[in-house]
Design goal:
Two copies of one chain form a homodimer. Chain A is an alpha+beta fold and 217 residues long. Helix content of chain A is 55%, strand content 8%. Chain A is built from ten helices and four strands.
Chain lengths: 217, 217
């Protein structure tokens, strides 16, 4: 059994989508970000960076690990799933996982800050992040033009990028004209494991967000 | 022999520091960012994201890999150095490598954009990134309070974070009062392999930058 400390965000979903897709048994501990629980000392002891997700693997001496990208690699090794056995392919999966960790994630995160959360409207910053996200989406789209998934079979690299890309509307980034990206996104959305993972720790109801003038996905 | 496509930036140094520390034979191909060579089609064929560094390993069927974090993991596996054999320790190293990829790197990168490169001064954005970088530095400092390196022995996680942290002045972020971070930074700076790595593809002379009113390190 694994304990997953998480909240309903793209980085949180990366861990729960992986757990669901790999069919690993786990229990969920919801860390309420609105209450600032990620800043409490018990959580800092789990992750000195005060960020979700974190896992504790009770089958492995309560081994505790933070950073969604590291968690995905750990779970893939534990389950033997969604990470190629072939070394070259495995390193290519790591490349596209890193592309999400260093590019898609941080840039969509900054778009969210300036486009969604900040009271002050700073057009230069908003357009900077919208442009950069669109550029990264185009990189994915081109790469997916002649392949079904990022590296051969569906892998943790696809899960990681998809957990962010699916929230493109929330970030205010268009996917218009990116038909390969859309096809790839839809094909992952159709997977029941991936979909279940995005309902952890609870299902976000789009209608609720729309009422608040917001559209998440 | 490995070919390293790189430029004098923290992400570029992550690859050259790793190569130097691991004593792997390599040749350097300087990608001139000022001339926009990273946008040329020959380079896009190596990395669809148009970003340095990229390696091609001629001892492994010309296997080509991008993303500095993925490159460091590849080189550590190839050389058998700076990545623990113990699985738990190895995953902890991956966690701190991901901390750099998703936190230190992107946030210092954004600080550089708003503090150094943008003509328009946007105080809200500058202070946002300075505060976030300082917070991340404090996470490193606390973690290093009772250990010499991030995870047991010196590893690729130390190299990765150090390549960015050492440029704190350029990003305009203070390390005042962070004595554990400073001790760690100085101890890596004292390593000849690490230092040689930061002089690839050429040595940046601080005096030149100071003349231009800039201080890199």
């Amino acid at each position: 059994m694994i304990t997953l400390y998480t909240a309903p965000t793209p980085n949180g979903w990366k861990a729960s989508v992986a757990l669901e897709e790999m069919q690993l048994p786990y229990q969920v501990h919801h860390v309420d970000l609105h209450k600032g629980q990620q800043k409490e000392s018990w959580f800092k002891a789990l992750n000195p960076n005060n960020r979700i997700p974190v896992i504790t693997d009770h089958e492995n001496d309560d081994f505790t690990l933070a950073e969604s990208g590291a968690i995905m690699l750990y779970l893939a090794e534990k389950s033997g799933k969604f990470l190629p056995a072939d070394a070259k392919k495995r390193h290519q999966v790591t490349q596209w996982l890193m592309f999400q960790m260093s590019g898609i994630g941080p840039m969509m995160g900054q778009a969210n800050v300036f486009y969604r959360y900040m009271d002050e409207a700073i057009p230069t910053a908003i357009s900077r992040y919208h442009n950069e996200c669109r550029r990264l989406f185009e990189v994915l789209d081109s790469h997916l033009a002649d392949r079904e998934f990022l590296v051969d079979d569906y892998s943790i690299a696809d899960m990681a990028n998809w957990c962010w890309v699916r929230t493109y509307k929330w970030s205010g980034v268009s996917i218009e004209g990116l038909e390969h990206l859309r096809r790839w996104k839809n094909s992952i959305e159709a997977r029941s494991g991936a979909r279940r993972g995005t309902e952890i720790p609870y299902k976000i109801v789009p209608e609720t967000l729309q009422k608040a003038g917001k559209t998440l996905i």
